[in-house]
Design brief:
Number of strands: 6
Low-confidence stretches: none
Shape: elongated
Mean pLDDT: 79
Strand order of the largest sheet: 3-4-6-5
Structural class: alpha+beta
Order of helices and strands: EHEHEEHEEHHHH
Number of helices: 7
Distance between the termini: 10 Å
Number of domains: 1
Oligomer: single chain
Length: 170
């Protein structure tokens, strides 16, 4: 038996280059305990809340939204910290939703976040365009997720994945 602790589980559920746990130890040899399961699942909730807080911070500087056929642009007040935050958020969103195309550029006193999506993702694209209003209307960190679900996006979250893996363990 091998007790896999929290930091190893976190590496296993990372989006970018996750640890292939079964290449290190056979799945049937892995055991865990409730405190580790709780730590891992709490980490997923905390990560979502942190991301929503970062978007709220970014949208405090949103000047306008400009829709166009197949996408939209958000215009933000420009400064280097805002641009860095927007680039980080765009990268995280792309890891989550690869069907979106994000481009961050600088236009004079604005940082511009351009988002495009294929035609079949039009409803999800529209929900993402309305992301600032969704956050403004609800203090809940699950509000954006619920808006995307209503638009037809299906979520398979790392937390669900983790729960499934933990249920299969002894």
């Amino acid at each position: 038996m091998v007790l896999v602790e929290t930091s190893v589980w976190i590496e296993g559920f990372r989006r970018a280059r996750p640890l292939d746990l079964v290449s290190v130890v056979e799945f049937d040899e892995i055991v865990t305990c409730l405190p580790i399961v709780q730590e891992v699942l709490q980490g997923f909730r905390a990560q979502r809340a942190k991301r929503v807080a970062e978007f709220r911070e970014a949208f405090d500087r949103l000047k306008r939204t400009e829709p166009f056929n197949g996408g939209f642009r958000w215009y933000f007040q420009a400064d280097s910290a805002q641009e860095a935050l927007l680039r980080q958020l765009a990268q995280c969103e792309h890891e989550c939703c690869r069907f979106f195309e994000f481009t961050i550029t600088r236009e004079g006193a604005s940082v511009v976040w351009e988002t495009r999506a294929p035609d079949e993702a039009a409803a999800v694209l529209d929900a993402f365009r309305r992301f600032p209003e969704t956050l403004e209307a609800s203090p809940e960190h699950d509000a954006p997720k619920n808006a995307f679900i209503e638009a037809g996006l299906q979520f398979v979250e790392a937390a669900q994945e983790a729960s499934s893996v933990f249920r299969r363990l002894r």
